[in-house]
Design goal:
This protein is mainly alpha-helical. 80% of the residues lie in helices and 0% in strands. The protein has helices at 2-25, 29-37, 41-63, 66-82, 93-111, 116-125, 133-151, 155-165, 171-178, 182-204. α3 (41-63) packs antiparallel against α4 (66-82), α3 crosses α5 and α4 packs across α5 (93-111). It is elongated and about 70 Å long.
Length: 205
């Protein structure tokens, strides 16, 4: 008898959960945002479920990395939950979310701009996307900032950097080409990366 009562309770609870989920699924984004401001976790889950895939695809276009796309979308949603009582929308929720993940993705690239794969990613990503003209413009601006930062490096440091990044030469190969010690190459490249990181950040601000 106890088992029957337990099973009956479990079935009813499952049905109630399904009905509850269906109710949230029928709500508009505007209503969900209002509920989110009241710390409604279910509303937050519905917003995430409804939009995460489109946001991840947007970030993937920028970073070319599924892992980064996943992490960036999660970072944005964590930020939204923390600031849930302060969020004020001036348009549709999806527009706000797309702008948030795009800005976060661009900042992520800027922080990692001195890594080989990110420079290659940036170059490969700068192709006109007729569906995302705003993203294309941001790519171009970021590319110009990087070029400007590289051009501002001291001549020898710039040469070492370009041989390493553009021609994929090793420390030894660069040292032989320029007639300098390998340790000098390492130091010059390290200083170049620090300088680029600082310059790109200042230009972004």
């Amino acid at each position: 008898m106890v088992l029957m009562v337990y099973n009956f309770y479990s079935i009813n609870l499952a049905i109630a959960c399904l009905i509850f989920s269906f109710m949230y699924n029928q709500l508009t984004d505007d209503v969900l945002i209002q509920m989110l401001r009241n710390s409604d976790a279910k509303a937050f889950e519905e917003i995430y479920r409804r939009h995460w895939e489109r946001l991840a695809l947007q970030v993937l276009k920028i970073t070319r990395s599924r892992e980064d796309a996943r992490d960036i979308v999660q970072e944005v949603f964590v930020s939204i939950w923390r600031r849930r009582m302060e969020i004020e929308l001036k348009g549709e929720l999806i527009g706000y979310l797309l702008k948030s993940v795009r800005n976060t993705a661009i900042r992520h690239i800027e922080k990692n701009i001195t890594r080989n794969n990110y420079l290659q990613t940036l170059s490969g990503s700068i192709t006109a996307d007729e569906n995302s003209p705003g993203v294309y413009c941001e790519y171009r601006e970021l590319d110009q900032r990087v070029a400007q930062a590289v051009a501002s490096l001291p001549p020898k440091m710039q040469t070492v950097y370009l041989l390493s990044r553009n021609e994929k030469m090793s420390y030894k190969e660069i040292a032989d080409r320029l007639g300098i010690a390998e340790n000098t190459v390492k130091k010059q490249l390290s200083n170049a990366l620090k300088s680029l990181r600082t310059s790109v950040t200042k230009l972004t601000i």
